[in-house]
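Example: Major facilitator superfamily (MFS) profile domain-containing protein.
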Amino acid sequence: MTTVTVTATAAEAAPPTARSHNRWLALTILALAQFLVVLDASIVNIALPSLGAGLGLDHNLLTWVITAYVLPFGGLLMLGGRLADRYGHRRVFLAGVFGFIAASLLAGLSINGPMLLTARAVQGASAAPLAPAALALLMQLFPVTDGRTKALGIWGAVAGLGSVAGVLLGGVLTASIGWSAIFFINVPVGLVVLAAIPVLLSRDVAQSRARLDLWGAITITLGVVALVAAFSMVLEVGFLSPITLGLAAAGVVLLGLFTVIELRSRDPLVSFSIFANRAVTLGNLVVLLIGGAVVGLFFVLSLHMQNVLGYDAMLTGLTQVPLALALIVTAGALPPVMAKAGSAPTLAVSLVGLAIGLVWLALAPVGADFVLHLLGPTIIIGAGLGGAFIAGTELAVQGVSEADSGLASGLVNTSQQIGGALGLAVLFTLATTLTDSLGAPGADEITALAGGYSAAYLGAAGLALLAALIAAFAIRK
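Written out as C-alpha cells, the predicted fold is:
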C-alpha cells in the first residue's frame, strides 16, 4: 500500500503529538464527545412532531431543524480539521466542545423557531472542528503499531452507536420528559468532556502563525454547503427542481475554484499530495458510500416501523437495540481479526454482510413480525455496520503523518456527511417514487409504503456492494 508522509516545514509546524498518562481513559472521553456529535444529527428525527407543536413550526421549518445542523457541520469540517493541525488539536477540540454545550443549552431553552434554528446552526459549526480534532488526537495517542486498530474499533462502534441511539433516546426522552430533553442531555455529558480532557491530555504548545488559506477556506466551505443543501432539498422539491440543480451547480463550481486556488497556494488548506496515498482516497470513497447507506437506512427504517407496522416512537426506538448490541459486540471482537487480516479485507467482508442484511430486510412481508422477520436482518446489519465503520475509518487514515492528521480526519467526516446527504436523497426518492407507482386508486396504502421502503433497503444494499468492490480494489493494490 502506498503511503504518504508530509514533512512539516518550520513555517508549518505540526501540532505536538498528544500525550496522556491514561490514554484509554482519554480515548473514552474523546469517543464520548464524538458520540454527542453523531447523536445530535439523528436524535431530533422522532422528536420533530412534538417539537413542532411546542414551538408552532410548520412542516417546512421542521426539516430545517435537521438541515440547520447538517449544513454548517458538513461545510466547515475541512476548515476545522486544518485549524486543528495549525493551532493545536486539544485547543481546537476544547473550543468546539464549549461551543457545542452552549448551543445545546440554547436549543433546549428555545421559545420560538428562529432561536432554535440559530442554536442548531451553532451546534453544527461547533461540531465541525470538534470531530476532526478528536479523531486526530486518537491517531496521535495510538500510533499505527501501538493499539490503533483496537482504538479505532471503539471509535467506530461509538460512531455507529450514536446513529442508533439517536432513534432510541429521541423516542424515550421525548415521550418521558419532552423535546427539550434531547438537547439538555448534551450539557452534563459535554461538561464532563470539558473537565476531563485538560487533565488527561498534554497541553498544546504555541503553534505556527502561518497564513491561513482564507480563500480556500471560503470556497470549500461554501462548495460543500451548497452540495449538502442540494441533496437535502431533494426531499422537499425533487432532483430536477431549479433550486436543487442550482445549488448542485454552485457547489461544483465552487469546489472547482477551490481546486485551482489550492494548486496555486504556497500554504494550501488541503495538500492534494495526501491523495497520492491510495488508502486515503479509497477509504474516503468507501466512507462516503457507507454514510449514504447508513443515513438512508435509519431514516427509512424509522418510517417503516411507524407507518407500516404501527409502532409508536418509543417502541420504534427499542427495536434498534438488537442492532446496536450487534454493532457493539462486533466492535469489541473485530480488532484482533483486523490486525491479522488487514483493514481492506475486513472492510470488504463487513460490507458484503451489511448488503446481505439489507436484502433480507427488504424481503420482509408487509405485516412483518419483528422477531420472526426483522430481528435476524437487523442483527446482521448491526454487525456489518460495526465492521464497516471501523475498517473504513482505519483505511482512510492509513499512512497519514501527524502534520496532516486533522486534515485526514476532516476528510473522513466530510465524506460521511456528503455521502449521508446524498444517500438520504437518493434512497428516500427511490422509496417515494415506488410508493407512488404502487399507490394506484384502490390499492392498499400500507402495501404501497412497504414496497417503497423495500426499494430503499435494496438501494442501500447496492451502495454497500459498491463500497465492497472499492475495498476489494484496495486489497488488490
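The CA atoms of residues 100 and 160 lie 20 Å apart.
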